[in-house]
């Protein structure tokens, strides 16, 4: 592809400026790397060149190795080791000194390129970091060796293990860069510094061989070992952070060059693991949710949403208002009386001030955000808003009345949206003539923190309205996913079998705490289904369950134990007991008083006749709970509720905490193998047929088809081939 290269300019000052070119972020595609390598060799060989500056075109240094290239080459994660080994060596120890002039971003391989230079300058606003672990790999251009030698081991381990970038100011403080220079002078100062190093008036630093920032050997090894133990505790399923630490340790023990060899081996190993494939998939899938077929390719221009109205200042409404004012959107917050209004305004204020307390925001910025919030008890100013988000009680009649009022009060082009999680969007707007501008804006609680926004369209919602809502979602820093209108939309719908399958396991004789452990520690969910029920509230779960049963009755399993807990007012955290008991600090522990509820549920279900409970390994528990979820996910894809399977992957990761290193629901099933999923589901359908529960497990047609050799799909979704219609 034209434009993927590195160019060079030779100045009369004897400095060659090599510029990385691959818009928009100058990713290090193999063509860019080989261009860089060639230009470097050329510059080093010319007698009129004294020094070299490396920079990036169009205000960005580089966002690292081109992620599209991973997996294209067998082994080594798509990285050509002959270039990799040599270009950093040539940058660091070639005949001429090198200086990196960094603007915008220096991430991953981008920062590693800069680290190999003999000095670094950056401009204000630059972000520098090694986020490779987020992609299931580790730094592969020498970062595991050079970063610790530049900023110290402890800081380097933290930067790599958290993947968090640092600011220009922090980079200067850490010694990661040698100076911060306004962007208009950056190149000139980098040239001058390069010339001075060439002239010997400034020292030439060879980072790989520095030891001045490294802790003494014993302390350094203790830092790595501590980081290893912590990582194993925090992320027991992940191997690549440990591989990263192994490479760092090798460099500490045996020196930088041996460390580079260890890094290359560790990188190749990490790149061969499923976690890497899954995380790269999520990286692109998350960016692709904003591309919706028939909407974002329809030649329309999104309209910026500058001012919205939020109806209802409860938990959801105040969270939505918080996210909006934080992103610079003006908000009218409407309530039905002054008491509720004041409570809602206070909630927004508390949400914002807690960011100040945590050091995430300056007080002045918080004040400015709060200045964008106006409380109201009337519709008087609703003519000024671009969009309304209704977050009132879940009552169809009430919502229909509100939407009729909104139609009268708002401009004819204002978007009318509802945050309902249970009511049909078409019903909400049934008393208006505004169907084309009615859309669901389904936030997850707490709305100012949870990153997903489901944008629910009906067949009548106009493309322009979907486009504008997508734009609003991105503006308030959510990941928007467009979904179709059905009970539960995408996320709540695919997760309804989650708790139900868990309840069935208990009715079959399994201990609920064993089930939770398998799902949390064995699989990697943030918590098991029963702990989640306690968090959400058994009453809410039961309400949602009834709702779902109404629509998908033939494949629901009645959660009797949850009904029993609701009857006894054991609703979870909010009442101090549910499946678990909670102390004053809301710490959960197993509760012996749960036993009679378990017994009652088992008796009613009649699936367990006492004696030894059936043998279920942790893996069996995971499959029994998640394969029905996958099955529902396939229905959601086949019905076109999501635009593409990857959207469901992103939604399940962001809203339910499905482990991103498993790739999201559908990608995980792909990695596990559709055939295995379908076979197990079919087995359980047969096993539970006599109990009338085969509908809960029966594999969907799409899933079966994909798992049968020789059958071709009618719709091809590429690697997410399981979701076939
Ligand atoms: N490779 C390929 N494409 C990349 C890329 C990369 N490293 N980084 C970003 N892009 C693409 C995105 O996919 C997106 O493409 P699209 O417009 O077609 O959807 C485009 O660049 C713009 O990216 P964003 O939408 O994310 O724009 P933002 O301005 O929000 O963010 C960013 C920019 C901070 C650079 C962010 O994209 C990012 O964090 N990128 C990934 C950085 C990273 O992980 N680097 C490590 C790569 S692995 C590596 O270097 C291995 C080495 O150690 C050997």
From TrEMBL:
Pathway info: Lipid metabolism; fatty acid beta-oxidation
Record key words, sorted: Fatty acid metabolism, Isomerase, Lipid metabolism, Lyase, Multifunctional enzyme, NAD, Oxidoreductase, Peroxisome
Listed CDD domains: crotonase-like
A Pfam family of this chain: ECH_1
Catalytically driven reaction(s): a (3Z)-enoyl-CoA = a 4-saturated (2E)-enoyl-CoA; a (3S)-3-hydroxyacyl-CoA = a (2E)-enoyl-CoA + H2O; a (3E)-enoyl-CoA = a 4-saturated (2E)-enoyl-CoA; (3S)-3-hydroxybutanoyl-CoA = (3R)-3-hydroxybutanoyl-CoA
Gene3D superfamilies for this protein: 1.10.1040.50, 2-enoyl-CoA Hydratase, Chain A, domain 1, NAD(P)-binding Rossmann-like Domain
Family the UniProt entry places it in: In the central section; belongs to the 3-hydroxyacyl-CoA dehydrogenase family.
Protein name, entry field: 3-hydroxyacyl-CoA dehydrogenase
Originating organism: Elliptochloris bilobata
High-level lineage: Eukaryota, Viridiplantae, Chlorophyta, core chlorophytes, Trebouxiophyceae
């Amino acid at each position: 592809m034209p434009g993927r290269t590195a160019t060079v300019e030779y100045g009369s000052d004897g400095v060659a400026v090599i510029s990385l070119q691959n818009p928009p972020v100058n990713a290090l595609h193999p063509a860019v790397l080989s261009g860089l390598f060639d230009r470097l060799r050329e510059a080093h060989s010319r007698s009129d060149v004294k020094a070299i500056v490396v920079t990036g075109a169009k205000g960005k240094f580089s966002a690292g190795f081109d992620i599209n290239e991973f997996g294209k080459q067998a082994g080594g994660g798509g990285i050509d080791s002959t270039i990799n080994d040599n270009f950093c060596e040539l940058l660091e120890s070639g005949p001429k000194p090198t200086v990196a002039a960094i603007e915008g971003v220096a991430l991953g391989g981008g920062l590693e390129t800069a680290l190999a230079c003999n000095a670094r300058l950056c401009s204000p606003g630059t972000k520098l970091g090694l986020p490779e672990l987020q992609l299931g790999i580790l730094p592969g251009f020498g970062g595991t060796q050079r970063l610790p030698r530049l900023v110290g081991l402890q800081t380097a381990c933290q930067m790599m293990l958290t993947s968090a970038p640092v600011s220009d100011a922090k980079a200067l403080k850490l010694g990661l860069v040698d100076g911060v220079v306004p962007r208009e002078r950056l190149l000139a100062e980098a040239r001058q510094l390069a010339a001075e190093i060439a002239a010997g008036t400034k020292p030439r630093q060879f980072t790989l061989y520095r030891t001045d920032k490294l802790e003494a050997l014993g302390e350094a090894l203790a830092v790595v070992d501590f980081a290893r133990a912590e990582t194993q505790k925090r992320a027991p399923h992940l191997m690549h952070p440990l591989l990263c630490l192994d490479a760092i340790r090798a460099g500490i023990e045996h020196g930088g060059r041996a460390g580079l060899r260890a890094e290359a081996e560790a990188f190749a190993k990490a790149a061969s693991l499923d976690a890497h494939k899954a995380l790269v998939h999520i990286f692109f899938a998350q960016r692709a949710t904003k591309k919706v077929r028939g909407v974002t390719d329809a030649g329309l221009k999104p309209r910026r949403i500058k001012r919205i109205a939020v109806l209802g200042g409860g938990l959801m409404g105040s969270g939505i208002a918080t996210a909006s004012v934080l992103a610079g959107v003006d908000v009218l917050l409407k309530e039905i009386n002054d008491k509720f209004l004041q409570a809602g305004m206070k909630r927004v204020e508390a949400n914002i001030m807690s960011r100040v307390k945590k050091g995430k925001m300056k007080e002045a910025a918080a004040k400015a955000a709060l200045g964008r919030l106006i409380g109201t008890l009337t519709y008087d100013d609703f003519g000024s808003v671009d969009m309304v988000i209704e977050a009132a009680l879940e009552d169809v009649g009430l919502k229909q009345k509100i939407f009729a009022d909104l139609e009268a009060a708002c401009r004819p082009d204002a978007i009318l949206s509802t945050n309902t999680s249970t009511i049909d969007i078409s019903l909400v707007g049934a008393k208006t003539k505004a169907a084309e501008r009615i859309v669901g804006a389904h936030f997850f609680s707490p709305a100012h923190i949870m990153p997903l926004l489901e944008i629910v369209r009906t067949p009548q919602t106009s493309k322009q309205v979907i486009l504008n809502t997508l734009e609003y979602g991105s503006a308030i820093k959510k990941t928007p996913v467009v979904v179709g209108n059905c009970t539960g939309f995408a996320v709540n719908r695919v997760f309804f079998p989650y708790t139900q399958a868990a309840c069935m396991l208990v009715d079959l004789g399994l201990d609920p705490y064993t089930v939770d452990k398998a799902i949390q520690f064995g699989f990697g969910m943030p918590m098991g289904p029963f702990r989640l029920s306690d968090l959400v509230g058994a009453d809410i779960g039961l309400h949602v369950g009834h709702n779902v049963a109404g629509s998908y009755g033939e494949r629901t399993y009645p959660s009797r134990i949850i009904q029993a807990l609701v009857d006894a007012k054991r609703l979870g955290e909010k009442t101090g007991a549910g499946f678990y008991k909670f102390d004053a600090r809301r710490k959960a522990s197993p509760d012996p008083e749960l036993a009679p509820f378990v017994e009652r549920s088992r008796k009613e279900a009649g699936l367990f006749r006492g004696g030894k409970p059936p043998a279920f390994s942790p893996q069996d528990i995971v499959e029994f709970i998640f394969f029905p979820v996958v099955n529902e996910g396939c229905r959601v894809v086949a019905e076109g509720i999501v635009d593409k399977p990857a959207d469901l992957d992103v939604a399940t990761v962001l809203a339910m905490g499905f482990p991103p290193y498993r790739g999201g629901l559908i990608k995980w099933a792909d990695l596990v193998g559709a055939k295995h999923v379908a076979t197990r589901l079919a087995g359980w359908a047969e096993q539970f047929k006599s109990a009338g529960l085969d509908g809960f497990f029966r594999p969907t047609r799409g899933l079966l088809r994909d798992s049968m050799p020789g059958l071709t799909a009618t719709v091809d979704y590429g690697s997410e081939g399981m979701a076939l219609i």
